[in-house]
């Protein structure tokens, strides 16, 4: 069973930065895309950023230019560098993997990590 473990969430002031990490273990294919989704209270889960096996990233319009997704050469760990954070970025952030495409999430989800942007 693939396991995804996130770390790095927390409380930050508007304009601040945070870095999230996600490590995958188990029968992980290096052909899987890996990415981040988020879910705010009362809202549906939405894509934040995803990176393919060829290291091609894709970002949601809301975070373009502020967030950067990266993946290690072993393709089992991803990070999300978040800068210029806004209160609207407050959500539980979930790591995802298991899909070969960037267009849809895979079957595997992490437990989520809370990001709160507030004064």
Total strands: the figure is 11
Overall shape: it is globular
Which class do the helix and strand fractions yield? mainly beta
Helix content: under 10%
Radius of gyration equals 13 Å
Order of helices and strands: EEEEEEEEEEE
Largest sheet geometry: 7 strands, mixed
Separate helix tally: 0
| Portion in strands | over 45%
Q: Stretches where pLDDT falls below 50 for ≥5 residues?
A: none
Average pLDDT for all residues: 95
End-to-end separation in angstroms reads 40 Å
How would you explain this protein's 3D organization?
This protein is globular. The relative contact order is 0.32. Strands 2, 4, 5, 6, 9, 10 and 11 form a seven-stranded mixed sheet that branches. Strands 1-3-8-7 form a four-stranded antiparallel sheet, with no helix packed on it. A hairpin with a 5-residue loop joins strand 5 (46-51) and strand 6 (57-59). The chain is mainly β and 119 residues long. The chain has strands at 3-7, 10-12, 18-25, 33-39, 46-51, 57-59, 67-71, 77-82, 91-99, 108-109, 113-117.
């Amino acid at each position: 069973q693939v396991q995804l473990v996130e770390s790095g969430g927390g409380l930050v002031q508007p304009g601040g930065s945070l870095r999230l990490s996600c490590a995958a273990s188990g029968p992980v294919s290096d052909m899987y895309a890996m990415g981040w989704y988020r879910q705010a209270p009362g809202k549906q889960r939405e894509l934040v950023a995803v990176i393919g096996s060829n290291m091609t990233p894709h970002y949601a319009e809301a975070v373009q230019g502020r967030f950067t997704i990266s993946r290690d050469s072993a393709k089992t760990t991803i990070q999300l560098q978040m800068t210029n954070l806004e209160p609207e970025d407050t959500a539980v952030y979930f790591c995802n993997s298991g899909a070969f495409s960037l267009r849809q999430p895979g079957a595997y989800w992490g437990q989520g990590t809370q990001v709160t942007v507030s004064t």
